[in-house]
Amino acid sequence: MKRLLHATQDVIQKWKIPTQNCVLAHVTTQMKAVQQGAPADMIFQSIAGTETANRSFGINVQLLEEANEIAKAYGTGTGPQHLYFETGQGSELSAEAHFGIDQVTLEARNYGFARYFDPYIVNTVVGFIGPEYLYNSKQVIRAGLEDHFMGKMHGLPMGVDICYTNHMKADQNDIEDLGVLLTAAGVNFIIATPMGDDCMLNYQSLSYHDIATLRQTMDKRPAPLYEAWLEKMGIMENGKLTKSAGDPTIFNR
Prior knowledge:
Layout: H1 2-15, H2 27-35, E1 43-46, H3 51-56, H4 61-74, E2 83-87, H5 91-94, H6 103-116, E3 121-126, H7 137-153, E4 158-162, E5 164-165, H8 172-184, E6 189-191, E7 197-198, E8 203-204, H9 208-218, H10 224-232, E9 236-237, E10 240-241
Parallel strand pairs: 1-2, 2-3, 3-4, 4-6
Antiparallel strand pairs: 5-8, 7-8, 9-10
Helix pairs in contact: 2-4, 6-7, 7-8, 8-9
């Protein structure tokens, strides 16, 4: 954990990238790493909409409050927010901790729980759990739009990992449709993986070039500081990617 955070921090510092350093692990692992000097700007944790489901994740309110204080005291983040939360409809059902409550209501509770901690970002991994909770493409699209709406209504910096498991009745076209809908709806950010294939978690997502296409099609721009860095590196010009985009040799110069 510490070695990974130092490695990513080295890249960020060498290329002066205006981004945040965070390596996903259980919150307690990150807390120990940060206390031992690991350079984390944010601490990450998956959360749920019931106390019992959160206990199954090995967390509670007190632990997250402690993580927030540790990040403030020992972390390398310079802003007022230091936590990164991940959610997803159905997690309470999969943990048998839903108490007969529907998954949309529990997801809304999740966002209220997240708001209490004033996080830097929150993202829903819509479609990750599988057809036990989201049966097909129509349900994934509905859930993605529901999560975006509920997150915005809670005043959260809400993003979406637009994805689906391979045993769900959905395909890449459906996920790209949801990407268009969420971009039009003003989603704060979209998470992507190389070529849309998350080989670690074994699900399909959007790819980096999908996000570039959505930006260009919908006339969206990156965060101003990041866009300035992209232009400085020759990766973007006037809001569009250049021929250097995707060329790893620019980091050998």
